[in-house]
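Reply to dn_fold:

You asked what the input looked like. This is it:
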Amino acid sequence: MTPLAARLGLNLPIIQAPMAGVSTPAMAAAVSNAGGLGSIGVGATDAAGARAMIEAVRGSTNRPFNVNLFCHRPARADPGKEAAWIETLRPLFARYDAEPPARLTEIYRSFVEDDAMLAMLLEARPAIVSFHFGLPDAERLKLLRDAGIFLIASATSLAEGRALAAAGIDAVVAQGYEAGGHRGLFDPAAPDERLGTIALTRLLVRTLDRPVIASGGIMDGAGIAAALALGAQAAQLGTAFIACPESSAEDGYRAALAASERTEMTSTISGRPARSIANRITALAVDPAAIPDYPIAYDAGKALHAAARTKGEFGYGAQWAGQAAPLARALPAAQLVAELAREMRAAAATAVSA
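and this is what came back:
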């Protein structure tokens, strides 16, 4: 048991990543009931949708769970760039007898400006709230902290980790470059140091005065044990849970995960760097400067995937996955947590006896 696990009321230092669009209340509840920390990602919904998800988790568990929010810079609309992007994608839509959207919109709001989401959280008071892509302002953080909510946020570099500590964040996720899904970069236009999970975890553990959670490329108990040996107080796993029956991943995504051998970092799908299983959309050769702001570009990406899917083609989907995706197992979430715990203990015992 680590101090962080004890502080959060967990039996295991295992956190299921809050994968918006993939994690579900059923998954979060199953993981929490199994002794880990389940998570829901509410960044892609509104306050009413987030409230419904929180209530659904609470209907299946009385244990702590994590509610994750996006804190990206609100999109800057550029009608010219967006129109040009639509035209770039038009031939792909035509391949599936479809028309692209007439215009693109910001499909969801950042928490940094979503007052309704803040009000809902202050009323619902989940035990844990986490942030991706940076932080909201100090006033919002204070309100959440004063409500007794434990705060977690992702860092991809030592500088970001220091900024989170300075802001009073309770625990920091070290998101290595291996991780699936969106990079948590505060500023996607700035250089990305592309630190791996091992290096970043050690840097943050040695530098910060608060718990560090290792994330990226961790798929089994041996990986969790390694993360703890590096000084992390928990490991966060996302891709490992995609194949669980509680996941909302569609059949094409699951099939791609089962056959995956390679992942790629791309901005083409959503407008921000994200690691996906290599597929048709990651293979597109486009000028990154031509891609509209996140999440406006995601409007086009989702529409293209929907068009292709009607013809049985799933290769334009956001099939987020980390570099160790081939290690995924299709187990119920609670069973997977139990297996991870068994493997973690076995790996730790082997290390002690070596």
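The chain has two domains: 3-74+109-244+329-353, 76-107+261-320.
Hope that clears it up.
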